[in-house]
User: Fold this.
Amino acid sequence: MNFFSTLISMTCVLALTACQSTAKSYNGYSGYQIENQTSSTATLNYTLANNSHPEKQQAKLQAACQHVLGKHKRYKITIFNQQEIVAPVAETSQQGITLGQTSTSFGLSQTPRLNHGADDYATHQALETRPRMLKVIRYSCS
Assistant:
C-alpha cells in the first residue's frame, strides 16, 4: 500500500511541475506573443510575473519556443531585452441582479466554511491576487 501512495505522490508532483512550465499564449495579462517566425527561428515576447525564479523563467521561455517551433528539440535562447511593466488592473465582474436601486449577486462555493457566520472574503481576495509588476522578455529561439 505504501508503494502506491508514493507512486501517486510522485505522479502529482510531476504533473504540477509540468503545468508550471507550460507555455501559454498571451491572454491580455501574461503569456507569449509571436513577433516573427520562420521555419527554424522565432522572435517572441513573453510576459510573466516579475518575481519568477530564473529556472522557471527559462523553462517557460523554452516551452514557448517548443510550442511555436516544435516540441522535439531544445532551442538556443537569446534574450534581446527585458523590461518591467505595471500589471493591468483586473476587471471586476459585474454579475448580479439589479433590484430597483440595489444590485444583488448570488454564488455557489465548494469551499467548506470554517466560521459558519463569516463571509469568506479573505479566500476570495487570495484567489484573485496577481503580481503588481510584470516582466516582458523579448527573445529569439534558434
Summary: The chain has a mean pLDDT of 75. Helices lie at 2-20, 54-69, 121-127.
